[in-house]
Amino acid sequence: MGLSIIPHLISDAASTTGVQIKKVVRRGVILQLQYPTPLVLVASPFDHPTLAAVRPSKAAAAVAAAASRALLGSGPSIASPWPRNRRSRAAASSSAGAGGSRRSGAASPSSTRPPRPPSVRPAALPPVALPRPLRQHTASALLNSAFCFVCAVNGEGDIPAATAEDVEIAVAAARDAFSRDGGRHWSRAPGAVRAKFLRAIAAKIKDRKSDLALLETLDSGKPLDETNADMDDVAACFEYYADLAESLDEKQRSPISLPMENFKSHILKEPIGVVGLITPWNYPLLMATWKVAPSLAAGCTAVLKPSELASLTCLELGAICMEVALPPGVLNIITGLGPEAGAPLSSHPHVDKVAFTGSTETGKRIMTAAAQMVKPVSLELGGKSPLIVFDDVDIDKAVEWAMFGVFANAGQVCSATSRLLLHEKIAKQFLDRLVAWAKNIKVSDPLEEGCRLGSVVSEEQYEKIKKFISTARSEGATILCGGARPQHLRRGFFIEPTIITDVSTSMQIWREEVFGPVICVKEFRTESEAVELANDTHYGLAGAVISNDEERCQRISKALHSGIVWINCSQPTFVQAPWGGNKRSGFGRELGEWGLDNYLTIKQVTKYCSDEPWGWYQPPSKL
Known about the structure:
Mean pLDDT: 81
CATH superfamily of the largest domain: Aldehyde Dehydrogenase, Chain A, domain 1
Structural class: alpha/beta
CATH architecture of the largest domain: 3-Layer(aba) Sandwich
Distance between the termini: 94 Å
Strand order of the largest sheet: 16-17-18-15-14-20-21
CATH class of the largest domain: Alpha Beta
Radius of gyration: 27 Å
Number of domains: 3
Number of helices: 18
Number of strands: 24
CATH topology of the largest domain: Aldehyde Dehydrogenase, Chain A, domain 1
Oligomer: single chain
Helix content: 25-40%
């Protein structure tokens, strides 16, 4: 059964329910039906695959039900448990650049309709063979036209699993784009030229915000409110670096003051070259943008490898780049596993720099590979960030920041303030309120309105978090709240907001990054004790302090060994401010002007201006 059957089924279903549909637009796993007002359905990858109404209404539910019965012999599941979110290796090999047409097979309804498929249960559906992507050196992604259909029908999806051969193609495309015609079309073009493309990408992101946010939620389990905010940040990041690309022109040939009048000197800021960008699954498109936008603004060309657990919005970014006519080879996107795609990219001799966000262990391996060629790297790695709360605070206000610091995005945040340090005078009252607030969090299908805690990204991550909690219990800690699956969600990778007390500094839960909705708590008496506990970690990404004593906050902000400090809050992130850590949390800074500097090299140009000889050597005798 081909992709083109789906619009026909939708149209037939609509006609039986009295809904007049003007057209069906297929965008990823999203089927947008235009009738007097837009109706959006999702080809849902739940355990019982259906077409589900995203914006529930009687019309939407009726069409979803009829189409689902025709497609699978079942009704819609509008508020289903979250999907298994599995990924398997693609049956066909992948390539760099664009793989075939963007959405081949997604035909609009026509007068000649194929016969309806028989009504069968999901388990009886045959696997769909994946077409081999065409090998084209273009400024886009590996686009697999069969992926979304497989996801919609079987509850599982395939994305291309790139190999070292594909990395070679991608790097060659990026290298060619960097040096083509002496770089005049990209690397040596005025910053204003690159800014035009970045603003065009931002505009497309804004136009497709709701579609991209929905796709991100379906792929990662994040609440839809969070992914909508992420898309705003993605567009803002491209716009910000468009501005910096333009201002880069003004900073070229900046003069250097010298002590000798017969010399003049200036600097040139030049793109570092071809960069390898390896990004994580917790903020899939946003974390990719933090690297893609500044690297392109600087004039680099790039090979992006997103996490295999959440690649879809990055592939959509590739499609957007094609639509704005980004020059071929400037951005190449490969999907696949770390050992098979990420490792060949980080060790490739023609990649001039690697920027990585992910685990500390993977960061070590990237450093080792890069060191063989003395290749620069920037690393944004793990964290175990502290939040210090003193006894002079508004407790409910502080409690909300403590929760936001570790429960947002289901705690899958590298900077999560997951070590809570409470002044002993307020500890009991604070914990009582923290438990009450935590129990009030809406944990649900991320598509539900008001969801504040969705699923974690994968079964592996789910089991890892549960293991951390069970180990903490076995080591003598108290699970004060949460620690298990919510009772109303029988399936999916959901974990309750978890608060752990009676923790010692030697426990695994205190020392290691959990990357889940888990906070552990210790008490302190004095400011110096709080700072000592806060700094007692191998990590140094972020830290926070909440107090009404401004001088105390300033002292602690200087004393914390971290790259980021928040005062009276946790986790605010702005594209204008630098982001990065110390110690085992990595080095280098993203965002702000520092993010642009990541992808620039500085060249000194010095000129001798005098008409007189230099006069260091005695000239030979004239014969």
